[in-house]
Amino acid sequence: MDYPHRAHEALLRIESLISTKNQDHVLDLISEFIFYEKKSDSRKYGNTHKNQQTCGLSLIQEFQLVVVLCEFYERPGQEMIRNAVFLSLFERSNAYRLKVLSKLIGTAIASSVAPILMAAGTWIQQVGPTNTSCLELTQKLIEDFIVFSNKGPEQLKNLPAISPRFSINFLVCCTDLYLNDTKSHQLMPPPPPALLEIFTNWMLDYPTLCTDAQPQLALPQGAISMPIVSPLPGLIRWCVLAPISNASTDGSAYSKLHLAILKSLMQESKSVNDLPPASAINSVALGVVIFALKFRATEIGKTGDIDTDEKMQLSLERLAQCIQIALQSRSLTGGVEPFLPMFLVDTHIVWGETDRSKNI
Fold first, then answer.
1. Do β-strands 52-55 and 281-282 pair in parallel, antiparallel, or remain unpaired?
2. Do residues 319 and 293 lie in contact, with contact meaning Cβ atoms separated by under 8 Å?
């Protein structure tokens, strides 16, 4: 039996085991018959390190595996079982499996394979959008569809309509990669202009993408479902920090995104059924932005006047407008009081009492 048929039969067996809640050998089947991972037991001779694994798939077999997985997920089936299979396939997020995963998701995006994108969105949410594995995967997708592709932006255009959950989680991953200084006071570079334009169009074309409550994850009984993370704090951070970023691109692009964010926040008042809003913004996330502003305000204050620095004022006004609308739409959790003392400017600017809407 050649590899594609062997992998297909293994997937059917894995699906059957998960369906009957008998998962004792699922990971072994995946390792041996899907990825051809060979174990070398390094515990021999007193060595207590974990087993080393090498993958025996050729490039052709990698391509065949992607095709097999696409065909497998296009079959009718229970979403819960599909998600469980996907999570099991990529539970061990080693470098090789991430490589296969990026090819699989890239194919699903290019071919609009919704079931794979739905399962991938669940995987990102369960692993955590800011997890190293998810960020590495996101970086590879950005390279494939933005940096090295002319058709990529067009293929990403309607992604929210195909899989909202994947789109939201992909957004969160991307916002963590750019204009972020959570680990140091050195801002990461801004996002590629094409990526910025795609996300802005998403927000404008699908204004409720970040506000609609997402259905509960379909997972096997006993599995703990991770809550969805809103991409709005990251997008707000982009717009607020862009003016004071040394590598800031076209200001009008961020103005357009800022307007889309405000419109999205306004959608929150239309939420129904008292479900947890996908757009809920924790005040801690705003605190990260405020800390970054405070640091840069200190730097500006060493050589100039904060009150006359147009870029800093624009950043503050954008943040104030987002806070105002988030409070009005009740999508801000935790309040803003703990962070007000962090500002090094007059409170009338923070609360947006000045009218500079023309500079949004």
1. unpaired
2. yes
Q: Are 231 and 177 in contact (CB under 8 A)?
A: no
Q: In angstroms, rounded to a whole number, what is the distance separating the alpha carbons of residues 272 and 244?
A: 38
78 CB neighbour count, 10 Å cutoff: 12
Strand partners of residue 332 = 281
Nearest to 321 by CA among 293, 269, 356, 290: 356
Read out DSSP for 107-164? Answer: HHHHHT-HHHHHHHHHHHHHH-TTSHHHHHHHHHHHIIIIIS-SSHHHHHTTHHHH-H
Query: In the structure encoding, which two tokens stand for residue 298, read together?
Result: 């200190």
Contact by Cβ (8 Å): 110, 157: no
CA atoms within a 13 Å half-sphere pointing along the CA-CB vector of 36 = 14
Greatest mean pLDDT among 37-41, 148-152, 275-279, 334-338 lies in: 148-152
d(CA 192, CA 170): 15
Residue 314 identity (one-letter amino acid): L
Single-letter code of the amino acid located at 193: P
pLDDT score of 210: 85
Closest of 80, 102, 112 to residue 15, by C-alpha: 80
> How many other C-beta atoms can be found within 10 angstroms of the C-beta atom of residue 342?
13
Q: 332 Cβ partners below 8 Å, 6+ apart?
A: 280, 281, 283, 286, 323, 326
For 128-170, the pLDDT digits (tens) are 999 999 999 999 999 999 988 888 889 999 999 999 999 999 9
- Total-model pTM: 0.86
Residue-level pLDDT at 110: 94
Rounded to whole angstroms, the Cα distance separating 109 from 155 reads 7
Question: In this predicted structure, which of 114-118, 162-166, 208-212, 343-347 has the lowest mean pLDDT?
Answer: 343-347
pLDDT digit string, tens, across residues 47-73: 444 455 566 789 999 999 999 999 999
